[in-house]
C-alpha cells in the first residue's frame, strides 16, 4: 500500500513556529530596549546595545523596528487600540468631546494602574521619554497624525455623518490629538498641578471644553 502524503502538510506547523520565534525575538528586543532606556536614558542607548542584550545583530533589530523611537511606539499602538475600543463603547448620549475625554482618561488611568495587561513602570518610562526626548516626542506626533483618520472614522460613525462631507469629525479628532501632546508639553514645562498623566489629560480636555464656550470679561461686559 502506498503511503499517502498531504502536500504542504508540514508547512503550517513550521510557519507557526517561525512566527512564534519572531514574536519572541520582537518581545525580547522591546524588553531589552526599555530596560536600557530606564538604566541609561533614551538618547544614551544605542541600537547596537539593544541588539547585544538579545544576542542578535543590529541588522536583525531593523527587521523589526525602523528606529529606537518605533520601539517606544509599540506600547502607544496598544494603548491607541484600547482607546478606540473605549471610545466606541461610550454612551451615544455623550457629546463627542466628552466621550473622547472619558475614553482617553480611562485608558491612560488603566495604563498607570497596570490594568488590561499594561505595564505601569513601562508607561512611566514612556512618559519621561516623551517629556525629555525631542526625538521621541516628534515621532509620537507623526504617529498621532497617521492615526487621526481612525479616530475621525469612529467619531463620524458616532455622529452619523459622512467624514468626506462634514468637517466636524476631523476637527474633533484633531482636538483629541492636540490634547495628548498638550498634556506632555504642560508636564515638560512644569506648569501641571500633578505629575499623573491621566489627570493632566483630563485637565487639558476641561480647558478645551471651557475654551469652546469661553468669552472674555470685556466681551461679556460689552454683551
Key words describing this protein structure:
single chain; 223 residues; mainly alpha; Arc Repressor Mutant, subunit A; Tetracycline Repressor, domain 2; 10 helices; globular
Task: Write up this protein.
The chain has two domains: 12-65, Homeodomain-like (Arc Repressor Mutant, subunit A, Orthogonal Bundle); 66-222, Orthogonal Bundle (Tetracycline Repressor, domain 2). The protein starts with 10 loop residues before the first helix and ends with a helix. It has helices spanning 11-40, 47-54, 58-64, 68-88, 96-113, 120-132, 134-159, 168-189, 197-212, 217-222. Mean pLDDT is 86; it is low at 1-5. Helices cover 75% and strands 0% of the residues.
Could you outline the blueprint of secondary structure elements for this entry?
Blueprint: H1 11-40, H2 47-54, H3 58-64, H4 68-88, H5 96-113, H6 120-132, H7 134-159, H8 168-189, H9 197-212, H10 217-222
Helix pairs in contact: 1-2, 1-4, 4-5, 4-7, 5-9, 6-7, 6-8, 7-8, 8-9
Q: Helical residue percent?
A: over 70%
The separation of the N and C termini measures: 98 Å
Main sheet properties: none
- Give me the number of helical elements: 10
Strand content: under 5%
CATH architecture classification name of the largest domain:
Orthogonal Bundle
Total count of strands: 0
In total, the number of domains comes to: 2
Q: Low-confidence runs (pLDDT<50, min 5 residues)?
A: 1-5
**What's the SSE pattern?**
HHHHHHHHHH
| pLDDT averaged residue by residue | 86
- The rough form would be described as globular
Q: What is the CATH third-level topology name of the largest domain?
A: Tetracycline Repressor, domain 2
CATH class of the largest domain, please? Mainly Alpha
The helix/strand class is mainly alpha
Q: What is Rg?
A: 22 Å
Quaternary state of the chains: single chain
